[in-house]
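Posting this for the archive.
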Amino acid sequence: MSLILSFIKLLEGLASLMQTAAKAIRKKFALLPQRVRWCAPDSTHETGILVWTDDPTKAARDTEFIPWARFEPELMMNLLPRLFADPVGYHFVAGSHHGKEYWLVQLVGADGKPFGDVWFGVNPDEDWSQDGLIRVGTARSAPHVWQTYRRLSDGTYERLPSRFRTLEDVPEGERNATLFT
């Protein structure tokens, strides 16, 4: 009988140790919300996004630049499937705006027609204020934003409160009509 009690205590101790280890692992690898800002090319960098995590324990903010060539595949793999119930054929395109190269990003359908605009770090419905979130919508008329996302530290995306559950729900008349200008 005492052998059984000793074995039970051993199992309880192992269970407690495993719970403590699991908490430490979750804490170490917790997904942190990040902020982003679109960076059009200039003399200091190529096209891409600037990413940072708000960390109140640090005096200075650590930033990471992700070039478009690396960021676009991340969007295709991690954001696109969250936008649509069936994302097949859709893709992201960085294009020119009023003569400025790689100034805007649009979501384009398999037919080559633009579906919507993508904004990194700004809110077109709040006077273009910078807040570090990702928004998908239309520049044509307010309200501009259909869906809002936050980038997480593992390169995945969390949907925040949005007008439409999927982009298939966006009325045809609200979708974009032109591809860049």
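Residues 33-174 form one domain. The chain has two domains: 1-30, 33-174.
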